Each structure stands twice: as structure tokens, then as C-alpha cells.
Amino acid sequence: MKTVRIGAAQGFYGDTIEPAVATAEKGNVQYICFDALAELTMAILVKDKRKNENAGFTKDISVQMKALLPYVKEKGIKLLTNGGGINPTGAQQEIIRVAREMGIKDLKVAVVTGDNVLDRIPEFEEKGYSLNHLDTGASINQIKDKLEFANAYIGAQPIVRALEAGADIVVTGRTTDTAQFLAPLIHEFNWGKEEWDKLASGVFMGHLLECSAQSTGGNFSGNWQDIEGFDQIGYPIAEVSENGEFIVSKVEDRGGLVTVDTVKEQMLYEIHDPSAYLTPDVVVDLTNVNLENVGPNQVKVTGTRGKPRPDTLKVVMGYENGYAGQVIVGFSWPDAMLKAKKVDEIIRIQLERKGLIYDEVRTDFMGYNSLSGPLAHDNESELNEVFLRMVVKAKTKQEAAKFSRLFPPLALNGPPSMSGFSGNAAPRALLGMWATLLPREEVENHIKVEIAEV
After folding, report:
1. Cβ distance 447 to 154 under 8 Å?
2. Partners of 420 in the beta sheet?
């Protein structure tokens, strides 16, 4: 039975490229796939594009291409990435620039556009689409004038079109995390658009590979102490059969661990309903999945089932949502916690006295409850040190800036031994997220695939 080998390259913007290079060298893969985008990433890229019209894609795409383009030419490995972000055409041009700089020719670089629907919001409203918040039902009128970006999650089919046109590299904007991984399987195996079980298996494979080393021991909450080679951990590789079954592994001389338990932990990551994991390509049912250790660092995955794809696509928008002002100050033994609590009390009294009203004021005691929250149970009086973190949410940058100015006088005017003062010189802009649904044809009919040759 024909098989296809796919390697994971990136789980987030800024990820290391070293494991992908190792996979290209020794993983015997035909495809290497990147998942570069999160909602926060989109906001970062919007800000980049405001400063430079030619920006808006992930900046590390240049480093990635310099590292991997030689393998594209030598071994015929194809690269698929959604690192195009807000400006996928700009990313395509950057890839071409890097290739020319390296003297690499006869390369086809495809770009997929159409996921960005920000300028089409008025059109959607004219057609009667509510664009109400998916979870709360709130009207988009609340935030429409504050929108920073609006992108639909598109699936694998446009990437398949690019591969069918002979693309060596495909760069997209906002796709689902799994689209890059599913597309090669549809292309190689000629899976039909209604072969739901196979498509679901391809999506699940992508889900297991999308998050860097989380299937190969990274972030593992089991016997992580026994995992060797965290300093040079390997990223997952999937060998997929035409019937949809696949084996997850890694390059053997890289660190990490692939077992049923490491794969199982990633299996449940970000899955709200295991019986109905929604994607643009298929609804995935994981309730009958079987994981089996079939060799050292090899886990076979079977039993994934699929249901017809949804009639809508999810659109995620980011909007300006005020500013955060933050201060962190440290206190040492004795009575470290009591000192921190006293400063929290002092600041809150001063806020009231000065009439500084914020949308939210949050206090954390780092070293005690900043991670555990109400579950923290250590003896407060025995803490060697603790850092007080206070954050406010303000409507304007000016209001947020006023908060940090309350703290410096307490170095001499408050409880003893205050140290490690860290205040935001510039308040941080906050991003609010808005999710809604659109009929899929409203997005898909505007998707374009264009290829440029080096």
C-alpha cells in the first residue's frame, strides 16, 4: 500500500527550525509542514504591517527557507506553511528573494489568499449575515469600529490545488492548524471530498503533528523526567497509508519519546468535543481511535471516523480592547507574603483616593498563587521570597500609564525590602477576540491560488 511521510516543522511563530532540518536530513519525508499562526500571532502581524506595508508575515520564514530550501532541491521535499499571516503574498515574495539570494532556481512558490475578510465586513452585513458573537450572541456593532483583523479558517482544498499545479512551496494566510498536513494526503491519494473517514484521519494526523514536540515528549506530564534529549528534541513524523491509518515516529538520533501516552496527551489538546471536532474539511470523531505501540518510538493510529463537513466557516476577528498597565515588585523573607499583601492594600486604597477607576484590577503573588490560583496551599509565612504582580485594564493608554507611577515611592515609603521593581514603561495594547460564522461559499468563492517561479 502506498504511504506518504510528513514531518512537522513548527508549532508557533518563533519556534526553532533545528528539528525540521534534522527531519529533512534523516526523516525520509516528502513533505514538511508548518503551523505558525495563533490569534495572538495575527495581532502581532497586523502591528508589523502598520509599520511596514511589506510586512505582515512571520519574520522567521526567511530563516526557515534558508535552512530548508537546499533539501527542497536535493530531495524534492515540499514545504507547506501558513506563515503568510496577514500578508501571504509578501511571504511568497520573501521566499522568492531568499531562493534567488541562495542561487536556487526552478522553484515554484504558490500563495493562497482570500482568508482575509476584514474589508468585506460591510458586504456581509448588506447580505444580512449577523456576524454576532458565536458564543454570546452579542452584536458586532459593539466592536466593529475597533477591528484589527478578520480572517476565516480555511481548509486544505486550496493547498491541494497549489500542489496539483506543481508547487514546491505553498504559503497561506489563516488556515486551520491541520490544513497543511491534510493537503498532501488528498493530493497524493486522490481522496474524495466525501471520504469522511480518510479525511478525518488526515486531520487527526495533522492535529498530532501541529504542536512541535508535544507528541514526541515535549510538554509531557507523565514520566517526563525519564525523557532523554530535551536539548535536541525531535519533532513528530507521520507515515500515512492510503486507507488513512498512520504511524507517528521521529528521527531516531533526536531526543524525545513517542509512546501511546505522549500521543494520547496531544490527542486531547484543544479538543472540545472528541465526537465532533469541527474543521472546514470534515467533522472528526475520535471516540473510537486506537493507539498502539508498534515499535520503539512508533505509535500506530487507527479508528478515526469522519462526518460531513459543516456548511459554515469560522471567522475570528481581533479588535482593540483597551490597555494593560502592569507592575511587578519583589519582597524577601521575613514576612515576604505579608509585605506583598500590604502593598496590594496600599495601592488599592490609593486608586480609590485618587479616583483612578479601571475596568479590572488583578493581583497575583508570584511564587505562591500566580499559577495555582485558589489551589495554592503553601505556608505563606515560610516563603523565602514572593513577587507581587498587579495589572489593570484601562480604556486608554494614558490611564494605564498612571498606574505604574504609584509604586516607586513605596520603595522607601512602604514595607521593608521592596526590590526588583518592574513597571511597564509603555502600557500594552490589549486584543479582544470575536468569533462568528459565515456560509463557507462566501469565503471559498474568493480564494485564489497563484504560483510564481524562481
Report:
1. yes
2. none
Average pLDDT estimate for 135-144: 94
Q: What is the pLDDT of residues 51-93, one digit of tens each?
A: 999 999 999 999 999 999 999 999 999 999 999 999 999 999 9
d(CA 163, CA 108): 10
On the question of pLDDT at 425 being above 70, the answer is: no
Query: For 403-415, b where at least 16 C-beta lie within 10 A, e where not — what string?
Result: bbebbeebeeebb
Average pLDDT, the chain: 95
Share of the chain above pLDDT 90, in %: 90
Question: Please, are residues 415 and 367 in contact by the beta-carbon 8 Å criterion?
Answer: no
Q: Could you report the per-residue pLDDT of 238-280, keeping only the tens digit for each?
A: 999 999 999 999 999 999 999 999 999 999 999 989 999 999 9
Query: Each residue of 70-106: b (16+ CB within 10 Å) or e?
Result: ebbeeeebbbbbbbbbbbbbbbbbbbbebbeeeebee
Nearest to 207 by CA among 33, 26, 19, 88: 33
Average pLDDT over residues 369-384: 79
Question: Residue 362, Cα to own-chain centre: how many angstroms?
Answer: 26
Residue 32: which of 261, 237, 201, 173 has the closest Cα?
237
Task: Average the pLDDT over 406-424 and give the result.
Answer: 85
- C-alpha pair distances (Å), 424 with each of 221, 273, 421: 34, 39, 10
Task: State how far the Cα of 216 lies from the Cα of 235, in Å rounded to an integer.
Answer: 6
Nearest to 172 by CA among 2, 317, 33: 33
